[in-house]
Write a structure and sequence with these properties.
The chain is an alpha/beta fold. It folds into two domains: 166 residues, DHBP synthase, CATH 3.90.870.10; 152 residues, 3-Layer(aba) Sandwich (Rossmann fold). Helix content is 39%, strand content 20%. It contains 16 helices and 14 strands. The strands form two sheets. The protein has a seven-stranded mixed beta sheet, sandwiched between helices. The protein has a seven-stranded mixed beta sheet with strand order 8-9-10-12-11-13-14, with helices on both faces. Helix 15 links the parallel strand 13 and strand 14. Helix 1 packs across helix 5 and helix 12 packs across helix 13. The protein is globular. The two termini are 37 Å apart.
Length: 374
């Protein structure tokens, strides 16, 4: 992290806040400028409106492109993409450049337009990965309508009241998010099965996301307290969805920590392996069409697992916890904690039986994600 300009000082905080503002603008359908050697004026396909699209058309003319993740582009073009391919740029015939076309190309669940014969891949701009990365920070589909800008963008940005963010800052966001974490508040919250408990909230500079530490007893007094990294799951944790095992894991972890005398459950705001609730529901739709949980995320243009476990390690360090017993079946969590300087004294299995609905989901976690479920 030492070489990351986003990880220290007031200037770093301002740049991190600027990223969050830019991601918020994309969610609201407002264009954003990605600065750098080849500046881009970008708009999220998912939230684009007719007026904003017309602005991009006026700026770009024939150079207007749609930038997609390689898996989504491969599905549209019906052609494989090399494994090393970054974000892909597609050129559309002018008469197909409508909001409806862009949004249907962005979303594999939408009715697909009959425009494949007019689509072609073209060299992607140097800022393409930063553009789709900003959409991901905003929990949007990583599909961007982009227009190139001249190198001198200051006047354009000021005249149009737009936010400009550096491509490098976006690419460094995962580390910056961790460096910007702050404890916000701690309050006693007695739980039904763990009355001696409190909840501590954490937030990164300028972000609306809040991560929680559910603290049972006095784990700081233990040499290696029981710790679980649990990614929020609205459908499983709150609604009791049978599609996953998240609710059982959440309640089971709290009960286990209470029985153990203490523990910390980190409740991380990383719904759907980091893709957000709306995109997770989209992935469910693709699973209902035959994809497994990994391929569904990829079909949407996301990675198989977009979570940032460095956040969990940072929260533990803020709380003064440097050695843990990890309650998990996921070896990636163990590796992430170790890589971040947290001493993992041991792993405690956290297994729950399949329920007849989530059998394939659990099988995929074992076979394709490497979870230790036996």
């Amino acid at each position: 992290m030492a070489g990351n300009p986003l990880t220290g000082g007031d200037g770093a905080r301002q740049r991190l806040r600027q990223i969050h503002r830019a991601a918020s603008d994309l969610r609201r359908g407002v264009p954003v400028v990605i600065g750098g050697a080849d500046p881009l004026l970008i708009l999220a396909a998912e939230t684009a409106g007719a007026d904003a699209l017309a602005e991009l058309e006026a700026v770009a003319g024939e150079a207007l492109t749609l930038i997609l993740a390689p898996a989504r582009a491969a599905a549209i073009l019906r052609a494989p993409m090399p494994a090393t391919t970054g974000s892909v740029a597609l050129a559309l015939p002018k008469h197909f450049r409508t909001i409806e076309i862009y949004q249907s190309l962005a979303d594999p669940l939408a009715m697909q337009p009959a425009v494949r014969d007019g689509l072609r891949a073209i060299p992607a701009p140097s800022q393409a990965d930063a553009a789709t990365g900003l959409a991901k920070i905003g929990r949007l589909l990583p599909a961007i309508v982009a227009a190139p800008l001249p190198p001198e963008t200051a006047g354009f940005v000021a005249d149009h009241g737009l936010i400009e963010v550096a491509a490098g800052d976006i690419m460094d966001y995962a580390e910056a998010e961790v460096a910007g974490l702050r404890q916000i508040v701690s309050a006693d919250v007695p739980l039904t099965n763990a009355p001696d408990s409190r909840v501590v909230a954490f937030r990164s500079d300028g972000s609306a996301l809040e991560h929680l530490a559910i603290v049972i007893g006095r784990p700081e007094a233990a040499d290696a307290p029981l710790v679980r990294l649990h990614s929020e799951c609205f459908t499983g944790d709150l609604l009791g969805s049978m599609r996953c095992d998240c609710g059982e894991q959440l309640r089971g972890a709290i009960a286990r920590m209470a029985a153990d005398g203490s523990g910390i459950l980190l409740y991380l705001a990383q719904e759907g392996r980091g893709i957000g609730l709306a995109n997770k529901l989209r992935a469910y739709g693709l699973q209902d069409r035959g994809l497994d949980t990994m391929d569904a995320n990829r079909a949407l243009g996301w990675g198989a697992d977009e979570r940032n476990f460095m956040i969990g390690a940072a929260i533990l360090r803020i709380m003064g916890i440097n050695r843990v017993r990890l309650l998990t079946n996921n070896p990636d969590k163990m590796d992430a904690m170790t890589a971040c300087g947290i001493d993992v004294a041991g792993r405690e299995p956290h297994l729950f039986a399949a329920n007849g609905v989530n059998d394939e989901y659990l099988a995929t976690k074992a076979a394709r994600f490497g979870h230790m479920l036996d």
